[in-house]
Amino acid sequence: MILPGGSGGLGAAVAEAVAKAGAIPVIGCLGNLERAESIGGRLSEKYEVDAPLVVGDILDASVRQRLIDEAQRAGELYGLVPLVGNPARVPIETATEQDLIDSMRTNFIGPVLLARDFAAAAGDRDASIVFISTMQGTAVFAGSTTYAAPKAALVHTARILAKQWKIRVNVVAPGVNNAGMAEQSVQSGKYDSFIEKKVIHRFGRPEDVARAVLFFLEPDNYVTGQVLTVDGGLSSRM
Fold this sequence. Notes:
Low-confidence stretches: none
Number of helices: 9
Radius of gyration: 17 Å
Distance between the termini: 35 Å
Order of helices and strands: EHEHEHEHEHEHHHEH
CATH architecture: 3-Layer(aba) Sandwich
Structural class: alpha/beta
C-alpha cells in the first residue's frame, strides 16, 4: 500500500489502519524523517509490520518509481493513497502566479502523476487508488480558491480515470479535522462557531478519514468514480 504523506496527521492514521488490516504500508516522507521513522517503528511494534520508508517529493519521477519498487518488493502492488498536500492559504486577491502554480503542483499534479505511474505498474490486476481532496473541493467556501481549485480538479480527474482505467479510483474529502492541514485552524478556535451553533457535533478525527479510505481499499470493492465527504455534514449545512 503506497502512502506518500503517510507520516502526517491523517497519513499516520491511514498507515496504522492499513497495517492493522494486514497490509504493508510504504510510507512516503518529504521532510520530517524523524516523525516518519517513529511511525514506522510504532507499526512494527504493534503489528509486526516492516513499513518501508521512501524520502522525497513525488513530483520527482525517481521518487515515484522508488515508492512503486518498494511496494512491489513488499508484496503484490494493490493500493495507492496520496496524502500529500499544501493548505495554500493565500487569498486569491493577493495570490501570485507562483502561489497558484505551487498549489497546483503539490495538490494536483504530484498525486495524478503518481496515480498514472501506479496504474501502469498495476496493469490489469485488482487495485485501488484513493485520492484525498477536501470538503472545499466538493462545496463552495469563500476564500478557498487557491487551495480548493486544485483539489476540485483532483475530484474530476478521479472520475475520468475511474471511467478510463480498469482499476478503481475514488476520493475521500475530509472536512474540519483536528489533524492534518486543518489542525492549526481548529486549535486557533477558527471553527469553534460550528460547534457552538451545532452545525456539527464535533470536529473530525484522523480515524474518521482512515475508515473512509479503508472502505475504498477493500478488495473487490464494487465502488469506483465516487467521492465520500467526511465532514460531519458541514458542507451540506453551510
